[in-house]
């Protein structure tokens, strides 16, 4: 079947098998930031934005993206670069494999709620697993970023 | 001592690449036209393949080849990443007619795409002779059913194994007369503890790409911690010389020891050898869980002898370890269950005995997981000491103050090594203070069905394997006065590339940014055992120091010619270059580097290796406060506070993250991470849906501080950090749960069901 969508700001038309997953589709189009960590929608590594909302591309058919706008980390480099340095200062990226999904979901959080509390951050990102960092360093990084830009909900 | 680059929280060199999602992992960088490799796995725990029909499977469009036990070399090998001769038995074939666990590969399928490979897999018809299976490690030894009856089973080292007894290894070591001292003690605790086969659950599953390189050699790009061991393993398994194999690793999406075993490398390598074509094997999460390389399940019988005043006089520990269907890491992991638990109580210990049996069963083979047996042994011994404290009515931190190992003590249970750098006592007092132990140790009923309680545990580990591990580094001067650091160690996210670059910067008096790092590639890197056994900072770090020292001499030699000076003792190494003390003339590093490339015989590079006769333990104290719901049995971690003595933290931010990450893995092991097998030996927790690792809602508040000793045999006083950090949570949490409920849980994980049922 043929689908047409906007991928990272560019119009893409492609012929796909009906059962193609969005995850495999975006990787086939060079978006290697999108990772597969499980087959059960548990890890959050494959998070992309569909029309600005975070979705798990491992459990979304590419066909469902027809007519929609899909954004991966490749398309949000500047917005991400704005805050990921604060994660790097904590060393909380560690192996990095969960980073793109976690960063995408953080972007979605900050667009929806520019000044979240620590609990709101934990809740929003609860579906993004990380086995390396113990999560605390990721939270410190986001908190430091929010504090330097004048967030009100610091601890 | 004030350092410029070491002991500084420098950003990881790959941090922004990783955070911005750049293509740096195996699947991102390999060509897309590789054959997709899939493995048909046994549904039986113990069976003989009687017949395999491939004809209809081979008719599937896009299938390149299917291989069975009849196609593979018949030389047994081990896939454990260990120094040769490996303590692990040679008990594997690439494909064996005798399949020994649910998930053991039966056929290798190579196809143009995944769909074709999976379609072919469904069409393979296998007839099995199903055999009775050994599913309980407690009855495995001397069972009538043999997991490895084959005659060509071969142990490269004598470790007390016997395949005709289902025994991978066995042994006993002792100091003093443990029975006599126990008989003389006021109190002897006698308990059995049990830990499960936890899964490392690194986010990137096992994966390997193989191709034929431009010299016609096998080129392996794998997510591995052990490039050199991997090359040796492949060479034996495939029957081709090491000179025909090149193994490299790109960035690794986590390892925690899982990738210290060549879990999946042989399969695509075999496909490439047979077809000449590139091949890619990526394990699904389910495969990683069913046929990975998890922690050894252990049952530990502790007898702890003490006096009424709290003096611990004797420890007798027997560990039964379940190696599963193959023996990789079996003989060595078990050792740590005693060697890294008993010495914590060197203080007043008069005698110890540590005995062990490692058995084969028809369950998933175990491997290396952060802590490597120490985690299991420390759960048992630390729990026993907590039980002793509660029984005698002592504050458990006081009883530890009385008995713990202290700096300068000789540790008979730790190969007779001396605790040359040990701040365990300071870790305890600092942890007690920042956790506010005295206020939080008393049990507090919150009046809403919930109880708050605290628990404590100590831990140790090692720093490298003494008399075995080798770390190496090459440092080169570049034309502009910057440096290249080339390593065989594997940064799996830990940050060792950066930590070792910090050491170069410290030694060469330059910025960390002026050090470019490369690792690891068997064609390029100097030999390194690999990143495991808490060795990289300690051992490869020392090799970096040595290489820098040699490079400085080389640079001075080149500079001496340029400055017309025949005594390099008159030359000063300064950040900008080499200065002649008398004449004041300076040769800049840039000039020296260019000179090195023109009419010159002195290499502006140096390679050094290091090994160690000792394995200095890091030490740690962890304290936890929990809130336990008496009605549901649910445990919430409110606060986990840890103080660690890793010697000098080379990068405090990264050491802190290591500690936080290890603690959270330990929390998972204590509370949720469980493996059950059904009556046929099939694991029931085969996805993240059932195997629950902690999310960011499950770990409470973490506080980590460092109380440093100075280890003179390590680089800049450093010991290790990577593994020890997973050890304290399980015993500390079990302790807190006892405080809240009055029930000791000696069987991990401690689930709400077990708490409510009070057993």
Explain what you see:
The complex is a heterodimer of chains A (155) and B (759). Chain A has 155 residues and is an alpha+beta fold. Chain A folds into two domains: 2-73, Ubiquitin-like (UB roll); 75-148, DNA polymerase, domain 1 (Orthogonal Bundle), CATH 1.10.150. Helices cover 35% and strands 15% of the residues of chain A. In chain A, strand 3 and strand 4 form a beta hairpin. The relative contact order of chain A is 0.16. Chain B is an alpha+beta fold and 759 residues long. Chain B folds into three domains: 15-21 and 466-610, 2-Layer Sandwich (Aldehyde Oxidoreductase, domain 4), CATH 3.30.365.10; 31-131 and 203-254 and 258-290, Aldehyde Oxidoreductase, domain 3 (Alpha-Beta Complex); 297-463 and 615-757, Aldehyde oxidase/xanthine dehydrogenase, molybdopterin binding domain (Aldehyde Oxidoreductase, domain 4), CATH 3.30.365.10. Chain B is 26% helix and 24% strand. Chain B is built from 19 helices and 29 strands. In chain B, the strands form seven sheets. Chain B has a seven-stranded mixed β-sheet with strand order 3-5-1-12-9-10-11, with helices on both faces. Chain B has a five-stranded mixed β-sheet with strand order 7-15-14-13-8. Chain B has a five-stranded mixed β-sheet with strand order 18-19-27-28-29, with helices on both faces. In chain B, strand 16 and strand 17 (417-418) form a beta hairpin. In chain B, helix 9 (330-339) runs parallel beside helix 10, helix 10 runs parallel beside helix 18 and helix 14 packs parallel to helix 15. Classes of the chains: A alpha+beta (155), B alpha+beta (759). At the A-B interface, helix 2, helix 3 and helix 5 of A face helix 1 and helix 17 of B.
